[in-house]
Amino acid sequence: MRIITGYLLILLLIPAFIAVVILTYTEAGNAVSISKTLDEKIDLTETKLSQTSLILANNGEVISEIHRPMNRSYAAGHEIPDFIKEVFIVSEDRNFEKHPGFDLPAIGRALAINIHSDDIEQGASTITQQLARNQYLNHHKSYNRKLSEVLYAYQLEKTFTKPEILEQYMNAIYFHNNAYGIKAAADFYFKKAPLDLSQAEQAFLAAIPNNPSYYDPIEHFDRAKKRQERLLDQLAQHGKIKPETAENLKKEPITLKVDSRKNSYPDYSSYALHELRELVSEQENLDDNEELTTRVEELLRSGVTIHSNLDIVLQKQAVQAVESRLPDATVQGAAVVINHETGQIVAVSGGKGYQSGDFHRAYQAFRQPGSSIKPLLVYAPYFERFEANKDFPINAGPLCIKGYCPRNYGGSNYGMVTLEKAFIHSYNTPAIRIFQQVGVDEAFSDLAPFKLKKVTTQDHVLAAAVGGFTTGVSPLEMTSAYTVFSNKGLYLKPRAISKVTGADGEVLYRWNDEPVQAWNPSTAEKVRSLMQKTVTTGTARKAAGAGLGAGGKTGTTNDFKDFWFIGFNGPYTAGVWIGKDKPESMEYINHQSPHLLIWRDIMKK
User: Where in this chain does the record put each Glycosyl transferase family domain (predicted)?
Assistant: First the structure.
């Protein structure tokens, strides 16, 4: 019944559709041609041609080139081989030379399929419509967009000749791996100009745009090769080449010559692009993910420059430290370095061997913080509310509260100790006692300025004092929060982006964060002093080589599944996390303290 209904609807829609395009437009009883209306309403000079966007380090060096839908390398019609033009016409739009921009029979077939499936599966787009979509519209699937696409295509056909439309189309289509247009694709995959491509190479490239990610020649070479062979068969079937020619072209070896585009520090540039989404979302009030993605893509197509806070020297040190100190293939890590004096994120390691698109452990990995949470959730809230100093006595003996019986590392009990000793040796039972005295909800309220994404009211339990969270925190979050101890209790959210400028140099975006007084300066100074003592005589002695003023706090979770160290030295606060992506015990490397050695390698003067 649904199919019959669909066909009836088609019968009604097609005449109406034809009427929209062909019949007159009536206003106040006077007929005005739709051609004139389209001339007034559709401006084909306002194309969506893209430019390359850049990410700069803090010294102005280009660290990443970002290409979005259309590469600026343009191939004129005479620079494009006739053979590949024929491949696209046969495979994409066999009525290209005859239709006025749209193909009504194809639209009817597509409507039948879409109504039958309750979705928009078939587009029936001609080459002209595809050009309209790529150059003037967007790729969002809807019937409204499809109608706009048809009207633009109609106008394109009135404005340009068929060869001109085909030329523009060949420069607009996407060949994956940021290669847009035949000239960019030929250069990227074969290091050739389009006219220097063999016919087999041309057919191979023509195989990609139908589904660029699926036919990605780098990741899925075999898929692209099989589609190339199908395209050659189609050419033979339609009499464009002889069958024996098709067979010979199929046998010709395809050898890619691919060099990656400039992306010198992918750990950092990947995070900078993530932060760009946050910046645009905040300043343009865009909460809808699809709408935000569209806006960011528009910006990157417009040729913006992202001025970052990357310090190239520190970035190299951070990446190298993570790589060299983690020889075990199963152990991963992340590091973040922040200039706490300026609020700038100056270096980021997203993981050992990180490449663009990988899981970014610096901001996407949320793990149990262990004792590294104590300065933030236990000691700072305690000093803020009680007149206590480092010599204040605290019980480090056994403790049980309503069935919760935490233990000190190794199961040891220490009796009465000073706050300093409890901190620098990371005793657990004193931390629980202090946390209970402050009040669980009270202590958590102090974390509000840091906006820890995955921390919820479910975490408001005593175990949180020693790092027992439902989900956890990221290395970036922890490092950012620790900057407060070197800023007299003042928290300014650290950022990777200093500003974003347009192609004309105009400043389009910059952060307008306001600092928040998280704790009193005296509270921050007390915790800072304890962290310095932790490096000189406590659990972080292996980090002491970084410098005389260095300080920080270690953290180890149950069964040695996570190692943390966050600390400061000079103008920098750095955080290091070590763990396995699927949490497992790492007790076998505990004695090596790789987290401390990585931190020391990054931060030593």
Answer: 60-235
Q: Which of 228, 251, 274 is the last residue of a domain?
A: 251
Provide the number of structural domains found in the chain: 2
Summarised one tens digit per residue, pLDDT across range 538-594 is: 999 999 989 889 999 999 999 999 999 999 999 999 999 999 999 999 999 999 999
Q: Are residues 60 and 208 both part of a single domain?
A: yes
* Residue pLDDT, tens place only, 130-158: 888 877 765 444 445 556 677 788 888 88
Distance of CA 84 to the CA centre of its chain: 34
* Residue position matching structure tokens 């004092």: 465
pLDDT attached to residue 23: 43
Beta carbons of 41 and 292 less than 8 angstroms apart: no
pLDDT tens profile 291-333: 999 999 889 988 899 999 999 999 999 999 999 999 999 999 9
Same domain, 54 and 192: yes
Cβ–Cβ < 8 Å for 102, 129: yes
Identify the domain boundary among 458, 473, 488: 473
Distances (CA, A) of 194 to 126, 130, 198, 260, 413: 23, 21, 9, 19, 76
In this structure, are residues 128 and 165 in contact, taking their beta carbons and an 8 Å threshold? yes
In a domain, 29, yes or no: yes
What CATH number does the domain containing 467 carry?
3.40.710.10
Residue 157 has a pLDDT of 84
Query: Per-residue pLDDT tens for 225-242?
Result: 999 999 999 999 999 999
Structural domain boundaries enclosing 429? 368-473
Residue 520 included in any domain? no
Report the catalytic residues.
92, 371
In a domain? residue 528: no
Please name the helix (run of DSSP H) or strand (run of DSSP E) that holds residue 551, with its range, or none. Answer: strand 551-556
Q: Which residues pair with 1 in a beta bridge?
A: none
| 418-to-185, 381, 415, 430 alpha-carbon distances in Å | 68, 17, 10, 10
Residue 149 sits in a domain whose CATH number is 1.10.3810.10
Both 245 and 385 in one domain: the answer is: no
Residue 75 neighbours by CB distance under 10 Å: 20
**Cα–Cα distances in Å, from 529 out to 443, 446, 487?**
20, 20, 13
* pLDDT value of position 243: 96
pLDDT at residue 132, as a whole number: 83
Of all helices (H) and strands (E), which one includes residue 336?
strand 332-339
Please name the residues in contact with 44: beta carbons below 8 A apart, sequence gap of 6 or more. 136, 152, 155, 156, 159
Residue pointed to by tokens 């940021």: 178
Percent of the chain at pLDDT above 70? 84
Q: Are 542 and 565 in contact (CB under 8 A)?
A: no
Residue 352 included in any domain: no
